[in-house]
Write a structure and sequence with these properties.
Layout lengths: L2 H4 L2 H17 L3 E4 L7 E3 L8 H5 L1 H18 L6 H5 L3 H10 L4 H16 L1 H5 L9 H7 L2 H4 L2 H23 L4 H40 L16 H9 L1
Helix pairs in contact: 2-4, 4-6, 6-11, 7-11, 9-11, 11-12
């Protein structure tokens, strides 16, 4: 693919919009992470994976990494193990949200489960990793379910959780009791994140559709994919109907 096509004006506009969203989102804390000081889930968790759908799984994951690194450098975060580990989960979530094939989206949570259970504490709380079967189940469902934006959002946020959890148990000392306490918290947070991802996907689809219509852009689907079946106006109409 030529560089000019790869970084077309329309794609660059999306990348800039997304980078601004990431910068703002990372400034708004949602909840603290257990086991480490000054580490938080942020508003970024509510929209991070959607880049995978608009730009494709690979370029979407790359755009997430680029936006995260830019934010990382702009605010002068230290290159600590925890900060570096926290860069990776959303990459896999973006890939999951954008990819139509099962492949890596099933393999990643399976590896995460294995890595978690190999840890001495992980073996004691092996049932915690059952959360990570959710993205696998979503992907093997019939297409009409696996392509459902809410289920796909749920799969994406638990993919991020699987990668983060598998790394966290090795990087941050925590007791089995602490992991057990997290079980209901994870359910609450991840279902909220999934709802946020689905909502932000519909919102950004709507904004981009309006921009394309206003400026009469002709955008190839492999450059920037806007799904007209997920526009806010259509969703509202369906709810009223």
């Amino acid at each position: 693919m030529r560089v000019k096509k790869l970084f077309s004006a329309k794609r660059v506009i999306f990348l800039l919009m997304f980078a601004v969203m990431v910068f703002i989102g990372n400034r708004i804390n949602f909840s603290a992470l257990m086991g480490a000081e000054n580490q938080f889930f942020t508003l970024f968790q509510f929209f991070g994976p959607i880049a995978g759908s608009f730009l494709g799984p690979v370029f979407g994951a790359v755009s997430v990494l680029g936006a995260e690194l830019a934010d990382f450098l702009l605010v002068g975060k230290s290159f600590s193990l925890i900060n570096i580990v926290r860069l990776t989960p959303m990459l896999f979530a973006a890939y999951y949200f954008g990819a139509k094939k099962k492949g890596i989206n099933i393999i990643v949570p399976l590896i995460a489960i294995a890595v978690f259970v190999l840890h001495p504490v992980g073996r004691q709380v092996w049932f915690f990793s059952l959360y990570w079967t959710i993205p696998i189940i979503v992907k093997i469902l019939p297409k009409k379910y696996s392509n459902n934006v809410l289920l796909k959002s749920l799969g994406a946020t638990f993919t991020a959780h699987s990668v983060g959890g598998a790394a966290w148990i090795w990087a941050v000392p925590m007791t089995a009791e602490q992991w057990i306490v997290l079980i209901p918290v994870v359910a609450y947070e991840r279902f909220l994140f999934a709802a946020g991802i689905a909502g932000s996907y519909v919102a950004l689809n709507t904004v981009l559709d309006k921009l394309i219509e206003k400026f009469k852009w002709n955008i190839p689907i492999d450059i920037l994919h806007v799904d007209k079946s997920y526009l806010a106006s259509k969703k509202l109409f369906r709810l009223r109907a």
